[in-house]
Amino acid sequence: MLNRSFRPSQQEGCRPFPIASLEITLLDEAQQRAKEREKVLFARLCRIFDWKLTRQQRRYYAQSLQDGMTLVLTDLSKSILWTSHSFLTLTGYTMGEVLGRTPSLLQGKDTNMSLMRKVGDQLRHARPVNITTRNHRKNGESYLCRIMINPMRNTQGDLTHFLAVEYEVADA
């Protein structure tokens, strides 16, 4: 005999399809709005710091944000001034934990320190960097990532910042 008082929606963790679908749609829309806000913020940073960027470079950074890549802005002493939300998600840190610190907080026992010294040399000479390295999340878990760091110059040609674009890659 069937128990007609059984309602799946009352079971723990079970949501009727329309509600779950709506929640997913709302979450997706909220994420898209957050990405748009980050793109607007990045455009403001470009104006505030008077960076000399080509249209193609602006599109690249905006697309990187849209695609969920992490962006990290540092000053010349490599102190973090701003990160994209995806950086916080990838690493497990909060904005308060990373502001004012250097990206070396992501280094750990699996990080190739010889490569990091070469990166430092490149940045001291204001040269772009393009590497694959192993970084570490706040919880200590390591991950392989691709990092492109560009020196940022203002319209007068003065070096003002470094901007890194990073994304996780699959281990080989």
N-to-C CA distance: 56 Å
Envelope shape: globular
CATH-defined superfamily: PAS domain
Number of domains: 1
CATH fold-level topology: Beta-Lactamase
CATH architecture: 2-Layer Sandwich
What top-tier CATH class fits best?
Answer: Alpha Beta
Task: Summarize model confidence as the mean pLDDT.
Answer: 86
Number of helices, where a helix is a run of at least 4 consecutive DSSP H or I residues = 5
Low-confidence parts: none
Can you walk through the features of this model?
The protein has 172 residues and is α+β, with helices and mostly antiparallel strands. The chain has a single domain (15-168), classed as PAS domain (Beta-Lactamase), CATH 3.30.450. Helices cover 39% and strands 23% of the residues. The chain has five helices and five strands. It has a five-stranded antiparallel beta sheet, with helices on both faces. Strand 1 and strand 2 form a beta hairpin. Helix 1 (17-48) packs antiparallel against helix 2 (55-66). It is globular, with a radius of gyration of 21 Å. The protein starts with 16 loop residues before the first helix and ends with a strand.
